[in-house]
Structures are given as C-alpha cells and as structure tokens.
UniProtKB/TrEMBL annotation:
GO-annotated molecular function: phosphorelay sensor kinase activity
Pfam family, one: HAMP
Main enzyme class: transferase
Full protein name: histidine kinase
GO annotation, cellular component aspect: plasma membrane
Stored PROSITE patterns: HAMP, HIS_KIN
C-alpha cells in the first residue's frame, strides 16, 4: 500500500500552492471589484444627496427672496433664515445660516452652527455656488453655500449669502450597509472560489503526477514507458519531450546492452579458445624449465622468461573465464561446513606465504562456505597486499553480531602507503589499476572484481579502506551460516 504523504509535505506541495495562488487571485479580484463598486456607489449616493440638497436650497431661496427687503435688517435675516429651515422636504435635515455682505453670520432658530469652511465662504463671496463635505464631532455634514442675486432678473449679486449644513446620517448608514454587505459576501465568495481552484489544480497536477509515475517506471528499468499526449499546451510539450527522451534512452540502453553482451561473449570465447594452446604451451615450457639448468645462461634466461610470461597468460585466461561465468550467471556455489581458520591457513601454506603473513586465526569458528571460492578470495586479497602494500601483512578472522545476525569477518591489512581516497571507490572495478604506469604488472585487473563477485555469491561483501595507522585494509564480510542453513 503506498505511503500517504505527510501533512507538511501536502502543505508545501504544488497542489496547495496552486490552490492558494488561485484563492489569492480570486480574493484580489473580488477585493478590487468590491473597492471599485464601493467607491462608485458611495460617490453616487453622496452626489445624489448633494444635488438634491443644492436644488432644494436653491428653489427655496428663489421662492423667498422676492419677499425680502434690501438691504435686510437683522430681524429680516433671522426671519428669512427661519423660513428657509422650515420650508421644503429637507427641513429636518439641514441647518441654515445667512449673512449679508460683511455682517455677522445669522443662525436660525436652531443653533446648529458647526463652522462654515473658509473655502466655501471665499467662493460664495466671489459669486460662485460651492459645497464641501466635512465631519464635525463624528457627524458627517454637507456644507452648501449660495450667493443670492436680486429678484429683478438682472442677475446682479445682492450681497446676501445663504449656507446650509445638511446632515448625512442616512448616507453614512447606506455606505455602512454597503461595507457590511461586501464583508458578509467575502467568505461565501472565497468558499465558492475554492471549488474551481481545486478543479484547476487537479487539471494541472494530473499530467505532473503521470510524469512522476512514468519517471519512476523509467528509474525502475521500464524503458518502454510512454506518456499519453493530449492538448497543445506546455504540459503537452513536456510530455512529448519526455517520450522523446524515453525513446532515445531505450535505444541507447539497448545498444549498450548489445555491445556489452558482445564484449562479454567475445571475452568468454577468446578465453575458451586460448585454453587449449595455452595448455600445450604450459606443458612445453614446463619441460624446458626443468632442463634450463643444462642450457647456456642466455638460453636459460629466455626459457625462464617464457615460462613466467606463459604462467601470467594462463592466470589471465583463467580470470577471464571466471568473470565470464559470473556474467553468464553460471557460477555455482558449493557450500560445505568448514573450519575457517584451517581454510585460511591452507590458502597461505599452498602459496608459501606463511612466513610473510601474520595470521590471527581463532580456533573453533565454523561456517558453511564454498572452500574453493574462499580460497580464491583470501589468495587475491593477500596477494594484492603483498604486491602493492607493505609487509608484514596481517590476516585476522573474527565473528561479530548477535546470535540471530552473526557475521564472519576476514580482514587483510598491510603496512604500505594506503590507497588514494580518490581511488577507493574504484578498486573493485574490472581492469582498474590505480597506478597508470603499472600497466605491465602481474595482475590482470580482475582479481578484486572476482573477489567481490565471490563475496556476493555468499550474500556478503568486501570493503576497502585505509587503516588508522597507515596501510590498506580489505574486509570480507559474510553471514555466518551454521548447520543446515543454505545460501
């Protein structure tokens, strides 16, 4: 069952970011629309109130000015002001102030003078009608100023100024209602925007998920994986590019596998064909080597050189044959319960290394191993240490781990200069030689690769490292099987 992604991963995922981005765009659009609508509605409400008040005031002034005597006395202005306040439909919503030329401002019967803006007064004195919205003690007001002309129709200004303060409580309530409506509608709008956001995110993420699954299949080795291409957008172009890449990768891998198979088959065929003539050559040089003492020095040296090189060639052919069996999956494992210390000791004795190697071989360690292959592993590791490391070479056998997971460790250490850290990751590769000048050495470059393959047959591994006191350390790590346990 696939593991569900963690909540933190989902929160940081592409789906969450797409949904959040969609909601932010929706919120920004809704906010912008609401702000513009609010501004237009507020302007329309205030303008309607303003136009209505100006028209009503102008109409009342025009209807009552003919009855006013000029120049008016203070009592006439008070009466005129009171009549204006009482007249008209807007009488409950405004307070009237009047002034004649440079005289004092005359309030009406309602003492509501909150102060007339200086800018309005200047325009009215210049014969221009003016208005301005102000706020006094938290109450919104519209101040209107009208210059009054004589009633004879000549249009000459009489010097009379009329000011009205119109309360905007109803308009403020209407604007507040608009704000509340916008706020109450914001949450449902965001909730509704979430649905198309999820659908949009799903539409974008579907091809991305398909691309991820296809990439995982390619990684797992299913090189024939292809994506279904639909549409003409960028994601469709990405799918086509992926298909082109997968097709090219499949062709390249197939070609590499064919070339690798041919090279392995060639190495196996050549190694097999060389065995017969090499056997004959080995028999001949063995005979010549036995009679080398009776030959003249130059001939004897040539005979020994041929014998030595023939031995190297034979070992190389055997290594090629062995690695070919591993490649073909034909390497068999013949397990037998053996004494590990005795097996390692026999390997050293068979090659005459017992005087060159310091062995720490505890008695009583038994395991199910393939004796021939363990002999090859130990011989390769010790021989490599003797050739390229420094004496004395140490071989240590020990057992580690709990009863249900015990491991057999065979460690080979030398006292040489160690292995270059850049070389360590490559020492088990085939035909790899750390020293480029050592191309004509005794080894074939396959010894450590064969060692690793033999360890894998035993479900183990081989590690290479540098010791704390210098020198290289190779460790064969195998599961410790006992009794009837099989590989």
């Amino acid at each position: 069952m696939p593991r569900r992604p963690a909540l933190g991963t989902l929160a940081r995922g592409l789906r969450a970011r797409l949904v959040v981005a969609f909601l932010l765009v929706a919120a920004l659009s809704a906010l912008t629309t609401a702000a513009l609508t609010f501004r237009e509605a507020r302007t329309a409400i205030l303008k309607r109130t303003q136009d209505t008040a100006v028209q009503a005031l102008r109409a009342q002034v025009n209807s009552q000015v003919p009855d006013l005597r000029f120049p008016p006395r203070t009592v006439d202005l008070v009466k005129f002001t009171q009549e204006l306040e009482r007249s008209g439909q807007a009488a409950e919503h405004w307070t009237i102030h009047t002034r004649y030329k440079d005289g004092p401002v005359v309030p009406g019967g309602r003492r509501g003078d909150k102060g007339i803006p200086e800018g309005v007064q200047k325009k009215v004195r210049a014969g221009i009608a003016a208005f301005q919205r102000i706020e006094v003690d938290g109450e919104p007001l519209l101040v209107i100023g009208l210059p009054v002309a004589y009633s004879d129709g000549a249009g000459e200004m009489s010097g009379l100024e009329v000011y009205a303060e119109v309360r905007l409580r109803e308009d403020k309530a209407n604007v507040s209602a608009l704000v509340e409506a916008a706020q109450s509608g914001a949450l449902p709008a965001m909730a509704l925007a979430l649905v198309p956001a999820l659908f949009a995110a799903r539409g974008v993420l579907r091809p991305v998920r398909e691309l991820r699954r296809a990439t995982q299949k390619i990684t797992a080795g299913e090189l024939d994986t292809r994506l279904k291409v639909t549409g003409r957008d960028e994601l469709a172009d990405l799918s086509r590019t992926f298909n082109d890449m997968a097709e090219a990768l499949e062709e390249n891998v197939a070609e590499l596998r064919r070339m690798e198979s041919n090279s392995r088959r060639f190495a196996a065929d050549v190694s097999h064909e060389l065995r017969t003539p090499l056997a004959a050559m080995t028999a001949v040089v063995d005979v010549l080597d036995e009679d080398a003492a009776m030959l003249d020095p130059d001939t004897a040296h040539a005979v020994r050189l041929i014998s030595e090189e023939t031995g190297k060639l034979a070992r190389m052919v055997e290594d090629l044959m062995e690695i070919s069996r591993f490649d073909a999956g034909a390497a068999a494992l013949h397990l037998d319960e053996v004494d590990v210390a005795e097996t390692v000791r026999k390997t050293l004795q068979a090659r005459g290394w017992q005087d060159k190697v310091a062995a720490d071989l505890p008695e009583g360690v038994r395991a199910r191993l393939d004796p021939r292959r363990i002999d090859v592993v130990v011989a390769n590791l010790v021989g490599n240490a003797l050739r390229h490391g420094g004496e004395p070479v140490g071989v240590t056998v020990r057992v580690e781990g709990a009863a249900d997971g015990r491991r057999l460790l065979i460690e080979v250490a030398d006292r040489g200069e160690g292995i270059d850290p850049e070389v360590l990751p490559h020492v088990f590769e085939r035909f790899f030689k750390a020293d480029a000048a050592r191309v004509r050495s005794e080894g074939s470059g396959l010894g450590l690769a064969i060692t690793m393959e033999n360890a894998r047959l035993h479900d183990g591994t081989v590690r290479a490292a540098n010791g704390p006191d210098g020198g290289a350390v190779f460790t064969l790590d195998l599961p410790l099987r006992r009794g009837g346990e099989e590989a």
